[in-house]
Write a structure and sequence with these properties.
Blueprint lengths: L10 E5 L3 H10 L5 E5 L22 E2 L1 H10 L3 H7 L3 E4 L4 E5 L2 E2 L8 E4 L2 H13 L4 E4 L4 E7 L2 E7 L3 E3 L2 E4 L7 H7 L6 E17 L10 E4 L8 E7 L3 E9 L8 H9 L5 H6 L4 E17 L10 E3 L5 E2 L7 H16 L6 H24 L11 H17 L3 H11 L11 H9 L21
Parallel strand pairs: 1-2, 1-12, 2-8, 5-14, 12-18
Antiparallel strand pairs: 3-7, 4-7, 5-6, 9-10, 10-11, 13-16, 13-17, 14-15, 15-16, 17-19
Helix pairs in contact: 1-4, 1-8, 2-8, 8-9, 10-11
Length: about 450
């Protein structure tokens, strides 16, 4: 018996034409005769910010794990992005990761990420998807309702038409209406896990000089127990910096330039402030709020509608500070491909189960770090506390140990599972590092031995 999806006269419909929707459509085009993307925005202006994606103005990057999957789906796209201005960066050597009072040791690696704006990435990916013969994008319309029969989603209703589909994928992001739609069809709601972080993030664009950050291409300063302010600076196309400053629980970086600089000056490390204090600001600042990270446990539902999948941020919405969303969407697209290749039988349950495993690592990384902040509301476990303590020690080791830095960064870049941090040799080095005499250890390196810009 052939268990692959029979393409003949089969239609898939994707709700949402942002990054997640484009990734999903690319995969579906290999399994269905026709793929329709329904997008509420106008997509006529390429490489521009869209009303429906206000977060696109803030710092974005494609983690190395997501970048690898992107190349699998669209061969040659990394070269295309680089030609369009994306900045390649060795995640272990070309930037500053500030943890536990100093930067992780910098050393060359083969782990390369791409630094670029969200509109640039989305524009290039959309161009690739538009060139797929069996994919069409219907703009300026929204999905209003789902229609089901016998527990199977059969069609969607937009502003002006009803579209039948054999599979509907909701990739509409944080504002997904899937919960309401499924409730109206008498399907149970998935259990939600919430970590309330109450962050406010403000972004400005600055001109970038090659001498900034002593040539480094990015810098990350996370919040600590003593200082809940955090920030990120990333090189972007067209010789620019994008700088996002984050406040928590009522603290907010001002949008005016003087207030923005003052906020940056009070981060745990000085290098973001030093890089932008004399830089030319470009355009206006923009602020957004993000109350909570939310994970919906569709894989645990006892009854799941057939012919319908929830995808991307609609399944799990991560704290945007960690830049995981686009990369996780790419990895979920690869998971969708793997499950579709096995056929449509029990597709939803199989996909959600596999997707849960993809989400586990980035969810644990993001929420584990957020839960270190006392004001954060969420479930704390003994295992999580022990792992947080251990990772803190690993970070201190990684100030001068490049292998420890590589191991952590490969996990953070979604290339390896966290279990590699618990291999016996690494555990021994982490746990014994504090017992070595200071004379036996190189001093912590603070970004190429420099705290100046």
């Amino acid at each position: 018996m052939n268990n692959k999806v029979d393409r003949k006269d089969r239609r898939a419909l994707v709700i949402g034409g942002s990054i997640s929707g484009l990734f999903a459509a690319r995969v579906l085009s290999d399994f269905y005769d026709e793929v329709i993307i329904v997008e509420r925005d106008s997509l006529t202006r390429e490489n521009s910010h869209r009303r429906g994606v206000p977060q696109s103005r803030h710092a974005h990057g494609l983690l190395a794990g997501g970048s690898d999957v992107l190349e699998e789906m669209f061969p040659g796209i990394k070269t295309e992005l680089l030609e369009a201005g994306a900045v390649p960066a060795d995640v272990a050597n070309d930037g500053r990761w500030f943890f536990e009072g100093a930067c992780l040791r910098q050393a060359p690696s083969t782990t390369i990420g791409l630094l670029l704006s969200r509109p640039l990435l989305e524009s290039v990916v959309r161009g690739r998807v538009r060139n797929i013969d069996n994919v069409t994008i219907r703009e300026n319309r929204s999905v209003r309702h789902l229609f089901s029969s016998g527990g199977h989603i059969k069609a969607v209703r937009t502003d002006d038409e009803t579209i039948a589909a054999d599979l509907v994928v909701d990739a509409s992001g944080r504002g997904s209406r899937s919960l309401k739609w499924l409730e109206s069809l008498r399907f149970p709601a998935p259990r939600e896990e919430r970590v309330e972080i109450d962050i406010s993030y403000t972004t400005r664009i600055f001109s970038r000089r090659e001498s900034d950050l002593n040539g480094d291409l990015f810098g990350v300063v996370p919040a600590t127990l003593k200082n809940s302010r955090s920030g990120v600076i990333l090189a972007q196309e067209n010789g620019r910096w994008v700088v996002t400053l984050i406040g928590r629980f009522g603290a907010q970086a001002p949008e005016d330039i003087d207030g923005f600089l003052a906020f940056a000056k009070n981060l745990e490390a000085p290098f973001i402030y030093n890089a932008i204090r004399n830089a030319e600001p470009i355009g206006n600042a923009m602020t957004m709020k993000f109350p909570a990270s939310v994970r919906r446990r569709y894989e645990r539902l006892s009854r799941i509608p057939k012919g319908f999948l929830v995808f991307g941020d609609a399944i799990c919405s991560f704290n945007p500070v960690y830049g995981q969303g686009m990369s996780v969407a790419a990895m979920l697209a690869r998971t969708l491909r793997e499950e579709l290749s096995k056929g449509e039988n029990d597709l939803a349950r199989r996909f959600y189960k596999a997707a849960s495993k993809v989400i586990d690592t980035p969810w644990a990384l993001a929420t584990g770090n957020d839960l270190k902040i006392p004001e954060t509301k969420g479930k704390r476990t003994l295992g999580g506390k022990i792992m947080g303590w251990y990772v803190g020690r690993l970070h201190r080791l990684a100030h001068h140990d490049s292998q420890a830095a590589f191991a952590f960064l490969r996990v953070a870049q979604l290339l390896d599972e966290p279990s590699i941090l618990l291999r016996p040799g690494m555990v021994l080095r982490v746990l014994t590092a504090g017992f070595r005499g200071r004379s036996e250890r190189p001093r912590p390196i603070v970004a190429r031995d420099a705290t100046s810009p």
